[in-house]
Amino acid sequence: MADSAETKERCKGCEREIDICAFCQEPGCAAAICYGCQNRELRQTVPQPHAHGG
Amino acid sequence: MSPRAAWRLETLGFGEVYDYIDGKVDWMAAGLPTEGTNAQHPRAGDIARKDVPTAGLQEKLGDVKARVEVQGWDAVVAVNDQRVVLGLLRAKELAGDPEQPIEKAMRPGPSTFRPYVSLHEMLHFMVDHKLDSAPVTTSDGRLVGLLLQKDVAAEMEKK
To answer: Hey, is the C-beta of B21 within 8 angstroms of any chain A C-beta?
Structure first.
């Protein structure tokens, strides 16, 4: 049976519960961030500028 | 650019116009050249160390450690024969059992970053997360180089 008391991190951006920091992958990271927020902050992904086909 | 923009450029007399289907971000992620104001700022791919040592999954940790220490490195990127990043070994992982293969010793699936990420943002993240190095790859996972925090800080000081 899985240990339900496992410690989780919370993303500093969206406050969502995450298993581990997406940037450093170190448990207990004080600046833990989820993959989505990391990519937005580093601009590794860009939001679609408009809904139509371009 | 969009297909419509490509067609429009052809009507304006440009002879070689292509629709890069995967988009501008993928173009930049491949480390391909760009133009414009932002293109003048150095980015992660520009200063990532291209000479970072690499190792195959089946190599013995002790052999790899000895090889890279001679070169003055305390980090190794584990790659396959296509140079796709499969793992990362920093000093902590390199200090493991020298008899084990890289596959067992490495940190699998490390976070990787695209070549176009700004140095300012990377430095901010690396300091906050106390990370000395970060692998830079293309969007299909091929190694570009290893970005060192000290290199980013030195580059930012030039400004």
So the answer is: no
CB contact under 8 A, A42 and B2: no
Look at residues B27, B55, B51, B54 and name the one whose alpha carbon lies nearest to residue B115: B27
* Count of the separate structural domains present in chain B: 2
SS3 content of chain B, % helix, strand, coil (to 5): 40, 20, 40
* Structural domain harbouring B138: 44-157
Domain with B137 in it: what CATH number? 3.10.580.10
Asked whether the ipTM of the predicted complex exceeds the cut of 0.90, the reply is no
Segment B92-144, tens digit of pLDDT: 999 999 999 999 999 999 999 999 899 999 999 999 999 999 999 998 999 99
Q: Which of A26, A42, A45 sits opposite B113 (nearest CB)?
A: A42
Length of chain A (residues) = 54
